[in-house]
């Protein structure tokens, strides 16, 4: 209790405060950065999630935290092998169509020039991507087949899908792009995704 009274006194003494914009890239602290992103039809580099330092597990799910910076079309593929030619992966194209809609596909690629996309979901996600601040989210794959994407600081997913209710594998993940440059953060610390407020503005006070 005594420390609470101390805090109150300090707040009462504070005289001048001004709002400052926190550096939004603080959110990527501890992540790995991926900025040599191959194109949509190029050979992708699949990373084994089990070699990540930060992998979350619950009794019915596995999750990681990733981020992206760019104007539109943040594209992630994940599946169960490092070279998924001839088998399907799940593809999330976050905010394609000029940062307006997200499309989820079952992506089956036989070569760098041939693939089939089976659409699983199309959803409005206006302006979630940004060129100046990282869009950070948790990607969680459940045993019941659901996949949920939950933005940092939010409790409910902004995107949820499944592929015919079958369990999807988050063993390998790769990042790609369409016609715009963008870059990614992966293997991110998981502890930051529980912030309940969007604290991009901090009050800096000077105590007189
Ligand atoms: C799968 O489980 C998750 C977590 O319990 C739940 O949010 C989701 O609605 C479930 N999906 C289906 C299709 O039952
Ligand atoms: C969906 O799952 C059912 C039962 O497992 C299967 O018979 C069917 O072929 C699947 N459909 C697609 C489009 O994969
Ligand atoms: C990828 O390949 C498909 C089919 O060959 C083509 O239609 C599409 O424009 C290509 N995408 C890019 C970004 O090069």
Automatic annotation (TrEMBL):
Residues 1-19 form the signal peptide. The keyword Acetylation does not apply. The keyword Signal applies. Keywords: Signal. Residues 40-189 form the Farnesoic acid O-methyl transferase domain. Pfam families: Methyltransf_FA (PF12248). PANTHER family: AGAP008648-PA. This is Farnesoic acid O-methyl transferase domain-containing protein. It comes from Anopheles dirus. The lineage of its organism: Eukaryota, Metazoa, Ecdysozoa, Arthropoda, Hexapoda.
């Amino acid at each position: 209790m005594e420390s609470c009274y101390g805090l109150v006194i300090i707040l009462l003494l504070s005289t001048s405060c001004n709002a400052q914009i926190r550096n939004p890239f603080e959110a990527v602290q501890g992540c790995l950065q991926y900025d040599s992103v191959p194109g949509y039809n190029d050979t992708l580099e699949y990373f084994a999630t089990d070699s990540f330092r930060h992998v979350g597990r619950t009794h019915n799910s596995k999750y990681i935290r990733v981020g992206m910076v760019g104007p539109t079309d943040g594209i992630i593929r994940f599946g169960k092998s490092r070279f998924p030619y001839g088998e399907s992966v799940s593809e999330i194209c976050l905010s394609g169509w000029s940062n307006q809609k997200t499309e989820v596909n079952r992506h089956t690629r036989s070569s760098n020039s041939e693939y089939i996309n089976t659409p699983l979901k199309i959803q409005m996600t206006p302006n979630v991507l940004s060129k100046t601040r990282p869009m950070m989210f948790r990607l969680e794959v459940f045993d019941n087949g659901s996949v949920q994407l939950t933005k940092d600081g939010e409790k409910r997913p902004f995107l949820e899908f499944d592929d015919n209710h079958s369990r999807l594998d988050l063993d390998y993940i790769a990042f790609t792009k369409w016609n715009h440059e963008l870059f990614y953060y992966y293997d991110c610390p998981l502890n930051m995704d529980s912030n309940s407020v969007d604290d991009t503005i901090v009050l800096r006070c000077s105590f007189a």
